[in-house]
Amino acid sequence: MRIVNFSAGPAMIPTAVMERAQKEFCDYNGSGCGLMEHSHRGPLFDEILARANSNIREILGVSDEYEVVYIQGGASMQFAMVPMNLMLPGGYAEYADTGTWSSKAMKEAKLFGEVKCIASSKEDKYTYIPSFDKWQPSTKEASYLHITSNNTIYGTQYQEFPEANAPLIADMSSDIMSRRFDMNKFAMIYAGAQKNLGPSGVTLVIIRKDLIARTPANVPTMLRYATYTDNNSLYNTPPTYGIYMLALVTDWVKEQGGIDGIEKINNAKAAALYSAIDGSDGYYKNPVCPCSRSRMNVVFRLPNEELEAKFVKEAKAAGMIGLKGHRSVGGIRASIYNAVPMEGVEKLIDFMAAFKKAN
Ligand SMILES: *Cc1c(COP(=O)(O)O)cnc(C)c1O
């Protein structure tokens, strides 16, 4: 096994995918040069783009009512593009504040209209997703409702999604393609690729066709969704290598049994890790409400910060990296995205037991 990388992102990519990319790196498909050297308007790249699209549509169950496009600038640029394109004139948008990324999205939206925070767990240090009966009801007049499906830093995740009267938009950067969900509930979803889909530099956006016409006339060309949807993401040069890796990663997801196969493995990984934490007689503690636990980012604390530093250091020596919690919250975070194998999680669990015994 390669080193087990528990980093929150960029994160592990399936080894089989890395090996295939390596094999094809200098000579793609017998063409005599690497894919990165090929035109984005040639037949080789055409095939890759079409494959990425059809894999994504198949795995996520995306109907013809939606467009699938690839945009640069990361999920962070979507924080601005969403309100810039979709805030109705003089309108307001609804946001649920469940962590740092939600707050950042709200900050950008305030530049383009009024923001109504209709649910928040900020007062409780973002340790849960507010239960829907505590939300202010979503309104028909709102331009949209924005949520963050998985909170990468705090280790919380929506177990189900709210009923919204406004078009529902989700930042799914850290749990896209990790579990089954009903795409038809959403007006739009987006995700930076570097957690579950491939390398950084490409952001997947899936948007319902009827929303695209909303964009005000003064939005610049490269920041308009229509520029991407009208041109099959080829208005200008797209991140060709990132899209290629996305095609390979989604091929791999299909080989794992598609979304249900992946979800089953993810559930088993998360259940094993949480049970190791819960069964440690309080030595390891997960601060999150059990009803909101993330199956992607598992956060936990040790009895003190010195032990946490020692844990990270010794885990690294044992071949496990990326375990330090986000600098804003401390503690330990094991990100167990799709590409982290069950054996990697088992290795961490064994290490946790040995560390506890020795310390
Ligand atoms: C990582 C992350 C982001 C930021 O993504 P960039 O591509 O770096 O802009 C946004 N939202 C969530 C939920 C994330 O996990």
Describe the fold and architecture.
The protein is α/β, with parallel strands linked by helices. Helix content is 34%, strand content 15%. It has helices at 15-24, 43-60, 74-86, 100-109, 225-229, 240-255, 258-278, 305-317, 342-358; strands spanning 4-5, 66-71, 92-97, 114-120, 145-148, 150-151, 156-157, 168-171, 188-192, 203-208, 297-300, 320-321, 332-335. The strands form four sheets. A seven-stranded mixed β-sheet has the order 2-10-9-8-5-3-4, with helices on both faces. Strands 1-12 form a two-stranded parallel ribbon. Strands 6-7 form a two-stranded antiparallel sheet. Strand 3 (92-97), helix 4 and strand 4 (114-120) form a beta-alpha-beta unit. Helix 1 (15-24) crosses helix 6 (240-255), helix 2 (43-60) packs across helix 6 and helix 3 packs parallel to helix 4. The longest helix has 21 residues, at 258-278. The model has no long low-confidence stretch (mean pLDDT 97). The protein binds pyridoxal-5'-phosphate.
Bound molecules: pyridoxal-5'-phosphate
- The H-and-E topology, N to C, reads as EHHEHEHEEEEEEEHHHEHEEH
Q: Determine Rg (CA atoms, Å).
A: 21 Å
Query: Per the principal axes of the C-alpha atoms, what is the gross shape?
Result: globular
Between the first and last Cα atoms, what is the distance in angstroms?
27 Å
Q: What structural class do the secondary elements suggest?
A: alpha/beta
Unreliable residue runs? none
